Amino acid sequence: MAEFTLPKNSVLIEGKTFKAPAGATNIRRFEVYRWDPESGENPRIDAFELDMGSCGPMVLDAILKIKNEIDSSLTFRRSCREGVCGSCAMTINGKNSLACTKAIDSYSGTIKIYPLPHLQVVKDLVPDLTHFYAQYASIKPWIETQTPAPADSERLQSKEDREKLDGLYDCVLCACCSTSCPSYWWNSERYLGPAILLQAYRWLVDSRDESTGERLDDLEDPFKLYRCHTIMNCTDTCPKGLNPAKAIAETKKLLVQRKLG
Predict the structure, then answer these.
(1) Of the four, 94, 96, 161, 236, which is 20 to 30 A from 127 by CA?
(2) CA distance linking residue 58 with residue 52, whole number of Å
(3) How many other C-beta atoms lie within 10 A of the C-beta of residue 74?
(4) 31, containing H or E segment
(5) Spatial separation of the C-alpha atoms in residues 73 and 65, rounded to whole Å
(6) Taking the model in full, what pTM does it have?
């Protein structure tokens, strides 16, 4: 049997416990991953007991309460609080999601909060998305055309062509799907991952784009596209209810159709 040993500085240690204030009756426990690269210490798990009588209903509300009232050093990303920006993506009770869209009451018992898996951690709940965004830029996420723009109008498309973009443009690039994908864990240097491939398909099916051939040429690679093994974690975890696995399958279908003429 294979045995794996983690580097000593990556082993989680027990952190601090912050008790709820005296008199609190509706208490929920949150265990939060903490790591400060400047401390030289191992990552730890801090426990916070919160009085739900003075806390908002969402997991992000609990995290904000911890930062505002208990430990101001807690570091995380957030912005819109409406599931639109994708900033507060993290792992909640073992599943990637957006903290602002997950109700505390939808979980039972202790709520465990970690940064997105596979990525390097910048600090606490903040993952390093540099490589993820570089992969996004690599697919040229904008309309490319060869013909001159109409002189007196925008580049128009039919209602039917517009509907082909539904379920694609909605992606907020939170990286929940890509960081839930084992193929991305193993091959992230070369495999684009479900989030980026969904975005790539969005431009492939845009009737206004005139670089379909070049886009397919760029994706026809043993690793960029074909490392997808249809595990379906991406579709299962997407907080927006999108289907990256289907977009990847449709892209593969376009490549087959092109070969068959």
Answers:
(1) 236
(2) 11
(3) 18
(4) strand 27-34
(5) 12
(6) 0.93
